[in-house]
Amino acid sequence: MKTLILSICLGLLAVSVSSPAAALVPQADRLASSSKWAELETYLESQAKNQPPGTKELFLLCGAYFNLKEYNKLFPCVDRLQARIDQGDRTAMGFDISAEPAVIRAAAAIDFGDYRGAAAQAAKAYEIVQQRRLSPWMRVQALGVLALASALQGERAAAEKYAGMLGDMARKNTGGFVVKTDILNGQARAYMALGDFQRSLATIKQDEAAAGERQAASAMTVKIGAMSAQDELFAFNQLPKLFILNKSLYETGQVQKAKAGYDKLLAHPQTKDNGDIYWLILFDRGKIAQAEGKLQEAIDFYRRAIEVIERQRSTINTEASKIGFVGNKQQVYHALVAALFAAGKTAEAFEYVERAKSRALVDLLAAQKDFAAPPAAQQQVTALVAELDTQEAQARVKKAGAARSSRALEVKQKLQTVAPELASLVTVMPVTVSKIQSLLQPDEALVEYYYEGDDLNAFVVTREAVRGFKLHGGQMLADIRQLRTALEQPESQNYVTPAQKLYTRLIKPLEPALTQKKLLIVAHGALHYLPFNVLMCGNEYLLDRYSLRQLPCASVLQFLQARPASPASGVLALGNPDLGNPKYDLKCAQQEAEAIAKDFPRAKVLVRKDATKTAFTTLGPQFSYIHFATHGRFDPDQPLHSGLLLANDAKSNGFLSLGELYSLRLHADLVTLSACDTGLGKIRNGDDVVGLTRGFLYAGSNTIVASLWEVDDQATSYLMQQFYADLKKGNKGEALRQAQLATRKKFPHPYYWAAFELTGII
């Protein structure tokens, strides 16, 4: 339930007037009071070309950016607003707005799923309110976001406390009609986040002062291109309230009332400009339509909701966003995929699975500000990204028309041609099934999984066909944990039963479609932790039947296959770096690096103090094979801070972080991470494991071989030497398979040979 309500409207964060009528004359005030955020943005940005915006203009502009979910513009705007406030210019719309930047940052943190950060910013805002004795309106905003963040963190007592404080303010009615409305909205949102929809419904109905306006707004006839004072009152005060009302009705089983209310909201032109509310209404309407047996209508609503989400996602370029933004909206994707499955539209369901899964990776990548674009295209890429941002902002204004939409599409296509990998980061470029099919090898089947709770879908894609399968996902994480635990006990055979069980669950139902010799696995969530090669049918491993490779999402294929031939050659091997502590020494790793390099005509071996990050970043682009035999360090909460441990020198501390990889430009055909746990990362809601494999893919490696658990030094050294010996035959996937089969003869337990998996092209 939390994931469905955490983005519920946080209130009119950038606009406040003592009464609705006070804001009807000046252009900016009129647009703000009627929640015409897109038009307000366009107007204020045009004014800013003539003179720098003052505190009031920044206050309104930040509000427009927040409501439109244009995060790339929002945070610079908030920084400028904070700077004005720090200089002593604290007044806008007749109020001291000193706490506003912290309130907006808290609200944005909630959008990104960072509830702890949201609570910290909200607490800061409330402290400012207390210290400066700010207006009741400002107090309501701070308390409202503090209550919401506390509820979403699971801190029920704190959420109840702050909601109670809002209730006390409402009973005193100290701030007039507008403030009382905001008070009750804030209190109701807290109850919704706590899952108590009976109380949110009761709270929102307390505002009897707005009953007349609410009734009039519900009965109004929408006038396109013109708004009456009543319509402006609706947009300014009643839109958040009516959403909370109808959401509460829906969640308390009063579905038909909610349906009628949602339809009225969707008919109103200002609803589309409220980024918090719009996709949630579309999602609920889809669920209502599906429950009524109107499957195609439900699919249409879900599609529209995803379009809104992905448009908002495309504006995120701050590390704070990471994966959380789309992660907490995965239920929309899941609902659409399930509906498409039910409608027999398997190919389209696959395409939306790809959009759902790749979006999390895209969000993480979009947090980086210094992506490596093709050197020859840097200037053109910069100009295209800037124009795309402008076009998409203008497209939100209804008067933009088809010409601007056409131009935005043209810019996207140019960016896709010039820098396809970067294009995927700044705009959603859906991949088609036919495109994926064309990139598969003739004797290969792509097996892609996607699950939510007990609902597990699997797709088998070949050059000739796309087939969908409904599997059982219940207790899957527990089964994977059981297998992983057993695999780390090389003296035991306890892994056999869970390996057979997972084969029966994940592979056996697909067998009629798996007639090829090669499998390309696209996992999801906890399945990224599963060594597929060790799954067992009777006494036979999956490795015995198939040559396996992995991809984080099928869409990556189009980037990898399109890369030009590497100008690099030879092998660069970094082994057993001196980390300043004998307990980190890997003697077999040093022997491994030296043994691998001796079979290549052009090779560079760096061990101990020579195996530095500086050496890698300098020499790495010159080699087609790069081999790391070292330790890894992983930060599941800040994946970009995970990385490999190398020796330090005068220029570097030796830590090669995942974040740094996204700024490198390699020409590697293969990167091997013969280290501890280098394939792992934290499962995020929505997609997947963020690991070094993805960083090296983006940096320019076509293929990565990495481990899923802390590997045995001696067995790994043997496996790697076998792997590189077989590489000369040309197929990386089959080389790894043969190396694992050879290692299995010497070290039979899968703990010693099954940890490594290949990601990329073979």
CATH topology of the largest domain: Serine Threonine Protein Phosphatase 5, Tetratricopeptide repeat
CATH superfamily placement of the largest domain: Tetratricopeptide repeat domain
Tell me the distance between the termini: 42 Å
Q: How many strand units?
A: 18
How many structural domains does the protein architecture include? Answer: 4
> Gyration radius, to the nearest Å?
28 Å
The portion of residues assigned to helices is: 40-55%
SS strand fraction: 5-15%
At CATH level 2, the architecture of the largest domain is: Alpha Horseshoe
Commentary on this structure:
The protein has 762 residues and is α/β, with parallel strands linked by helices. The chain has 4 domains: 275 residues, Serine Threonine Protein Phosphatase 5, Tetratricopeptide repeat; 88 residues, Tetratricopeptide repeat domain (Serine Threonine Protein Phosphatase 5, Tetratricopeptide repeat, Alpha Horseshoe); 125 residues, Nucleotidyltransferase, domain 5; 198 residues, Rossmann fold (3-Layer(aba) Sandwich), CATH 3.40.50.1460. Helix content is 54%, strand content 10%. The chain is built from 34 helices and 18 strands. The chain has a 6-stranded mixed β-sheet with strand order 11-10-12-16-17-18, sandwiched between helices. The chain has a 5-stranded mixed β-sheet with strand order 5-4-3-6-9. Strands 13-14-15 form a 3-stranded antiparallel β-sheet. A hairpin with a 2-residue loop joins strand 1 and strand 2. The radius of gyration is 28 Å and the shape is globular.
